[in-house]
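Service request form, structural biology core

Requester: graduate student, group of Dr. S.
Request type: structure prediction, single chain
Budget code: on file
Notes: please return the result as structure tokens.

Sequence provided:
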Amino acid sequence: KLFFTDYGNAAKVERCDMDGMNRTWIVDSKIEQPTALALDLINKYVYWLDIYLESVEVVDYEGRKRHTIIKGRQIRHLCGLAVFENYLYTVNSDNLSILRINRYNGTDVQALARLDNAKEVHVYQKRTQTAVRSHACEADPYGMLGGCWHICLLSSSYKARTCRCRTGFVLGSDGRSCK
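Core staff response, request fulfilled:
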């Protein structure tokens, strides 16, 4: 799945399949300017930062179990969001510090480091990487991913795929070739 935020005409948190199909609104009320998003892949939670409402909130992948983690004026200066173990990590753009926040109750806020021009934070850890299994976009004997001429996108599951073409090309009637 692909998770993303939008604060155009109607602010929301959404998810869809990797090919853009099955687009679903997860959060579409009491949300104004969601600017950062982080996933708890193990427990299937979505965290987001709303700088207009000055809050960090969480829901499960279906949009249920919503609650506020932390709220207050300090939120308007945060950008980027990552989750790892018991904490959320973010950047305070006001003083360029990396912050750690308890993701269960918003307490234990600590500045960990100060970096010049920091705008985003990512956590890379082996335990957060999902195991790779056989999937529909693997290379075929001719080296084409999923049998697609240009682009292979996973669809509703790792067993399904959708082929797409680069700009200027049209997908052939076989659903794989590009002309």
